[in-house]
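Deviation from plan, reported transparently: zinc ion complex.
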Amino acid sequence: MGGWIAELWDYVTVWVGLIMCNVDDCDWPELYREKHVLARKKHRCTECKGNILPKEPYKYVFGKWNGSVSVFKICLHCQVPQKWLEVECGGYLFGELYSEILEHAQEYRKMFLYRWCVEMKQRKNAAQAVG
Ligand SMILES: [Zn+2]
Ligand SMILES: [Zn+2]
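Because the crystal trials were delayed, the predicted structure below was used instead.
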């Protein structure tokens, strides 16, 4: 992809949710793209550290913050709490999903938020058990 399409794409995608509750702490990306893909090999989810197995769908995120490029891979399960944060709080930070959800669980006292934390831990443990 190049030329005006790439520029338009950047323009559209750069605004996709990366704010959090604590907006002051948030770095806006200079470049942001996300796409939904099928895993061709085994990956590790950025958020839960669980396995993304071949043929499983996941979200591939490419972004540039303060001049450095980061890539995140988000498993299907973690996309749900991410979406929740996006709707509830206007965005989320990558790599902080577990602590963010835990914080909100303590604040909101909602069972489903605690359950998400437990499930993230379980996926991490399962991935470590297999190696
Ligand atoms: Zn995950
Ligand atoms: Zn919030």
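Residues 45, 47-48, 50, 75, 77-78, 123 surround zinc ion (ligand 1) (CB under 6 Å). We consider this an acceptable substitute for the interim report.
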